[in-house]
Amino acid sequence: MPGPIQSIERAAAILRLLARGSGRMGVGEIASALGLAKPTAHGILRTLQGVGFVDQDAVSGRYQLSPALQDLGSGRLDANELRSRAINRADALAARSGESVRIAAPVDGGVVVIHHVFRPDNTEQELAVGEELPPHATALGKVLLAYDGELAEAAREGGLPALTHRTITDPVALRRAISDVRRTGWAGDIGEYRSGEASLAAPIRSRGGLVVGAIGITGPIDRLCDGQLRFRPAPIAQVRDAAAAVSRDLGGTQ
Predict the structure, then answer these.
(1) 1 lies in a domain?
(2) pLDDT higher than threshold 90 for residue 34
């Protein structure tokens, strides 16, 4: 078995040291306290700052723990922050695809639409912000189920109600669908939530690759799918590109 990773041990020691102190600490103080070379301590601190675990005072250059550590257990990104960071990408996806765009995130154990861009054709449409989606029957929901064990367990416990004749109601079939999401990097639904409507979605990742939301498009089945009810390659690529762009903006990978 491989041994412990020294850089992670050192990062943990720095976090413990800052948690123990009563104020900010400089790089030299931290290096001296832990017996590290100053460049090594500085590199670890910059990395911890990059992932949001420590803050650096702009005037003194000294470091302290970030308030973000208090929310570490939730593993969530604030929905307002996600929305603000993704607005421009969502607008671009709507213009490129010609379809409506939704961004969803896990909120209070459910899948909730946090941003909605109308289809750019001037037709009458209803704002979906705040709508809670059935995770087993929507592309956005399937993406989040694939990367959130707590959400997936809640969905199984709540049952898989049929919303149309195409809705997945078999837990085994849903597990296969979720596995396909992890393998391909995108999810789809064809008439599973609303008859005649299809949707595509891909995961949004923050630092370290953590999935914090999903972005997708919704439109008529005949526009997103071919005659054999297979999703067309172009909208898949458009959604995945948009998700990758938002992920890069958040410091994640895609």
Answers:
(1) no
(2) no
